[in-house]
Amino acid sequence: MELSTEEQAVVDVVREFVDREVRPVVRELEHADEYPENLIEQMKELGIFGLAIPEPYGEAPVSMPCYALVTAELARGWMSLAGAMGGHTVVSKLLLAFGTEEQQQRYLPRMATGEVRATMALTEPGGGSDLQAMTTAARREGDGYVVNGAKTWITNSRRSQLIALLCKTDPAAEPKHRGVSILLVEHGPGLTVSKDLPKLGYKGVESCELQFDDMHVPTDALLGGVEGQGFGQMMKGLETGRIQVAARALGVARAAFDDALRYAQDRESFGQPIWKHQSIGNYLANMGTKIVAARELILHAAQRYDAGQRVDMEAGMAKLFASEMAMEVALDAVRIHGGYGYSTEFDVERYFRDAPLMIVGEGTNEIQRNVIAAQLVKRGGLD
Predict the structure, then answer these.
(1) Partners of 165 in the β-ladder
(2) % of the chain surpassing 90 pLDDT
(3) Does 362 participate in catalysis according to the annotation?
(4) What pTM did the predictor assign?
(5) CA gap 363, 123 in Å, rounded
(6) Stretch 248-265: mean pLDDT, rounded?
(7) Per residue in 44-81, is it b (16+ CB within 10 Å) or e — as a string?
(8) How sure is the predictor about 108, in pLDDT bands with cuts at 50, 70 and 90?
């Protein structure tokens, strides 16, 4: 598909930002595991945190295909930057779709500028992908809720001013998902960032455990003002999240491919550039083909999303294929670089460490296969 001239200009601006500001500094920041404060500030100035937020809260939003390609460009520079905006966008979409007018007015204008950055808190230390088995609970008391429990792998949680917390407001409800709600939580007494999780990749942007100990949250923090809607709300939000994660994988794969293609043209062995050796040429051909296929899957899901169609299967397919593809392409880039691919002096080792996150994040690929299979049966096959 072709973007409009205006949207293509947005993607081009982000690409230039990545090449000019991100790529020259990413290796040093990543190896130091340093939060990219300066780059995040520049992303705010470029309006990146408001790309999904329409008037009157923000400026004209971009389409989901444009948003996906912006995400891919950021991830091409450093996947962590794309991760820093992922949860923020999901929370924006949740507020737009389900928030009360007061909640929208309170948060969305400041989220559009990046003054308020948001993340979501789903996963628990003992729960993994089984969200309905969560134990974090919000008990009604007085003029609000008292929250107790723990969440883990929460991206950007130290620096996000708003957390969309998935929790149980009716632990006795059957089926279980009917007792789940989303609370819009801000940092305060009773909420502790209890641990920063050490990671293989995805450096710079923190992933933390959150501990809730008798935290008081006002009643008007309940997303949409109605209890028991949180599971369905979050599943809709995760359609955006999975398209975004797929786009991150696309960006990582593109960076790995670009580096491998340049290296294969510059490096010589047996008197010729190594790309002319059939084995290396085959790697490059396979890598390029997989990247184009992943891009089309992502754009297909994004177009259906904008058309207002249900896209849990399409987003799952895009996330499944793109994340597995990114891992394969990153490994092939290491192979093409030979011994240099194993050196921290080259970026391909970073791509190889970053790629697995997209396989296990935003719902593992095992879960994606379950979702896809169920939808294929429900829909009677492919469209």
Answers:
(1) 121, 183
(2) 94
(3) yes
(4) 0.96
(5) 10
(6) 98
(7) bebbbbbbbbeeebbeebbbbbbbbbbbbbbbbbbbbb
(8) very high
